[in-house]
Every structure is written in C-alpha cells, then in structure tokens.
Amino acid sequence: MDQLAFADTPTSRCAFYRHTCGLPAGIHPEIGRIVVKAGAVGAITMPATLGQRVRDDLLHKRIALGPIISHARSGRWTFLVRPDVRDDVQVFGELFRLNVSIVPIGGEIALPSPDDARTGYRQWVVPPRDNARPSGLDIVAAVRSCAERANSTDRRTSRPAATVSA
Question: Which one of 21, 75, 105, 159 has the largest count of C-beta atoms within 10 Å of its C-beta?
C-alpha cells in the first residue's frame, strides 16, 4: 500500500496546532501567519540566552517543558504557558528590567509555520506534542532564579579597578 504524503501548509499546520496541541490557532487574514490570541494560552518572551538558562533550569528541576519558540532574527525565545501569572505591575516591572515580557490577554502569539522553515523567522526549540504547557508562574520563578545566579556570578567575577599612585 502506498504511503500518502501530505504537504505541510499553513492550513494543515494550523489544524495540527488546534486538534493535537490544544492551541486555538488561526491564520491571520492580512499577513497569513499562524497566530494564537493570548488568553487560554499564555506566553513569556525573553532573550534567547536567558531562555536557554531557563530551559536548563526547568530540566534540572525536573519541571516538564512545554512548547518553546525561537525567533532567530531577534534572538528571543517565547515559552507557551498556562496563563496563571496574575496582572501585577510589580511583576511586569521586574520582568521588564530583565528584558522579559508576558504577552497580554488578547495579544497575538505567532507560531512557526511551514514558510518559517524557509525564511528562518520562527522555529520550535521544543515543539508542541499535546496540550501540556508549564505554569507561567514556574517560568517566572525560573527567570528570577537564573537572573539572580547571573547577577551573583557577575558580582563575583568583577573586580574593583586598580588604583594608580604617583
């Protein structure tokens, strides 16, 4: 029996995201990219270097990873999460200072599409396989932990400037 090969199109990818991964994805009518509106799904975006440390921290703590998107050209990663981080100005300010943002409810989250393989805009670091996503609170805690470790390392490795006496 012949194996049927199906072309990966934005429509088929969108259907996969909806039916298999529980992501309420749609195709943006004006620009044709695959998007999810934040609400039932949350997203936390950060610099890729911090994202790598957060991923490693979660793995070390045996916290299950969920989908992670790499935005190669901007050097950022987006973690898809359960939207359980409450709307708190102090938390948003703290994350903003670390160059981390939480996509607000109603904001668009762009998902990798078949065209991205060609253009290099977005790709999966950890692809979705089902509807499992980590808690946004776990990601925020990992960001804090990684940022604190980086700051303490910076403090230990920096040395006061030498003084020159005449």
Answer: 21
DSSP string, 30-82: TT--EEEESSSSEEEEEEHHHHHHHHHHHHHTTPPP--EEEETTTTEEEEEEB
For 122, the 3-state DSSP assignment is strand
At 25 the three-state DSSP class reads strand
What are the tokens at 81?
Answer: 């999460």
Q: Give φ, ψ of 98 to 5 degrees.
A: -100, 5
Q: How far is CA 10 from CA 1, 17, 29, 98, 134, in A?
A: 28, 10, 12, 34, 26
User: Three-state DSSP class for 143?
Assistant: helix
Output the CA–CA distances (angstroms, integers) from residue 103 to 4, 95, 150, 164, in the order listed.
Answer: 39, 12, 24, 50
pTM across the whole model:
0.85
The closest alpha carbon to 13, from 107, 102, 124, 108, belongs to: 124
pLDDT in tens, 41-100: 999 999 999 999 999 999 999 999 999 999 988 999 999 999 999 889 999 999 999 999
